[in-house]
């Protein structure tokens, strides 16, 4: 797939703005303002013309947005993996493991989210840290700068950490828990919208579009396709975990819940990403190899969609990937031009991480973070799969000791969560569904 080259748009926009200001300072504001308005009108018209370009009909046929059509295009799959639930101690170990794996991957990746591999390595060289990182960061760039969620960057330093700091890759798992507890496993997309309006104060990209559109009264089914160029990004993918935990061992059920969640904000690959991860995280509770969970998850999305093809490519190419540098190079070659928070490119990095590390969670998370792109999201989702496979007992204690069983939140009117309590509540939801549905 060849993307248009827009790499110089930021520079062109900056020069346009600054030269216009320069001409104002030189006493010629009128002509400068007229040209800027002319460009603004042209860009708005170009956006509308691009939006009106017809979709490729053949690909659209393979990538439907409604659940019955999605399921009709799946490969044969197990759909459910358990005939009965495992003992409570096993289910608790795996659920806590999945939560800890998610939190660990996220917090390892947050301080370097979006950095290039070269920038990460240079920072490690400068601070004397091993690269790829195998423990949380002792030093972070711009430590006193706050993120959009209200947390200062120094809160992600290992020496400061007294709990799991806030991040969107974490609070959506909390929000899924609240959705499921209020509406049950048969919740609707409308229910998701109600809970977002109630609890979610701030969001970015597609999720930010949702919050804005809900305030404007845009119909639920139109939100994802109205002024939303982010609907194929990975924002929905990071919301999969809670639905997987509540449907552990039931990948089809987990993917169905993920679909209803994703439909609020995303379409096509954006939806399939959340369905795929929910199915993989659900299957991970019942298998011994994380790549077996990936194989199960592929049977829950359309067999000929781009995401399915790309994950299959990553599985086939995995033998050529020795470390993070190989992984990033192959993904850059295949997805040149795709945004760094795209679904397909990041999902392939997740697969490469599992290929490299197997069931060694430290190696997997370390190499995946070092691959870059949206590395906190990718490592978090990967950690969730691995944690469910191996359980808390097999996760090195240093990865979660500083969490102190506490998970911060920026959800409205919610106190910090506790890992053991979250696990207990998710297990309670799983038991409501029944052993094998």
Mean pLDDT: 95
**Number of DSSP helical runs:** 20
Strand order of the largest sheet: 1-2
Low-confidence stretches: none
**Any idea what the radius of gyration is?**
22 Å
Shape descriptor: globular
Order of helices and strands: HHHHHHHHHHHHHHHHHHHEEH
Biggest sheet statistics: 2 strands, antiparallel
Q: In whole angstroms, how far apart are the ends?
A: 40 Å
Number of strands: 2
Quickly give the structural class: mainly alpha
Helix content: 55-70%
| Percent of residues in β-strands | under 5%
Can you give me a brief rundown of this structure?
The protein is an all-alpha fold.
Notes on the protein architecture:
The longest helix is centred in the N-terminal third of the chain and has 23 residues, at 29-51. This protein has 437 residues and is an all-alpha fold. It has helices at residues 9-25, 29-51, 57-62, 67-72, 88-109, 117-127, 168-183, 189-199, 205-216, 220-223, 241-246, 251-262, 269-283, 290-298, 306-317, 324-334, 343-357, 361-371, 375-390, 419-433; strands at residues 406-407, 417-418. The protein has 20 helices and two strands. It has a two-stranded antiparallel sheet with strand order 1-2. Helix 16 (324-334) packs antiparallel against helix 17 (343-357).
